[in-house]
Design a protein that fits this description.
Length: 145
């Protein structure tokens, strides 16, 4: 990671409601925190993701369905459509194929297409359009074919 990447992360953090950001790659670790925020008062994103995954597992086991979780591979902004005036890539109840685009995650001004890793039916969309998402956050639940 170079200095320009770090500047981009600082600007991204400043423009969102996220109070703390931690990036870890290979042999370095970068931790950014907004000034004036008390991190102890903010729930840890990992705990939120873990809770969602536990609830999802319990729900799928109870319903007897094979649900696949599509998680955010990075921190970014979730977009359900390629442009504001376009229809959403998918909606609840749509059938998707493996490799089909589900949404876009914008990170550091780059638009990253998030694709389905399995075929099935969209059971739930857990994020709203233009919402900031955390690394590892569950975005979609897909009931496998």
């Amino acid at each position: 990671m170079n200095l320009d990447d770090i500047r981009e992360l600082i600007m991204l953090l400043d423009q969102t409601s996220i109070a703390e950001l931690e990036v870890q790659q290979d042999n370095y670790r970068l931790s950014l925190r907004k000034a004036g925020t008390n991190v102890k008062e903010i729930p840890a994103p990992a705990a939120v993701v873990m809770t969602q995954k536990q609830e999802t597992s319990e729900t799928s086991a109870a319903a007897g369905h094979d649900l696949a979780e599509v998680v955010a591979p990075m921190v970014g902004t979730f977009y359900s459509a390629p442009s504001p005036d376009s229809p959403a890539y998918v909606k609840i109840g749509d059938h998707v194929d493996s490799g089909q685009t589900l949404c876009i995650l914008e990170a550091m001004k780059l638009m990253n297409e998030i694709k389905s890793e399995c075929s099935g039916t969209i059971a739930d969309i857990l994020v709203k359009n233009a919402e900031a998402v955390e690394y590892g956050q569950v975005l979609f639940l897909i009931e496998r074919d």
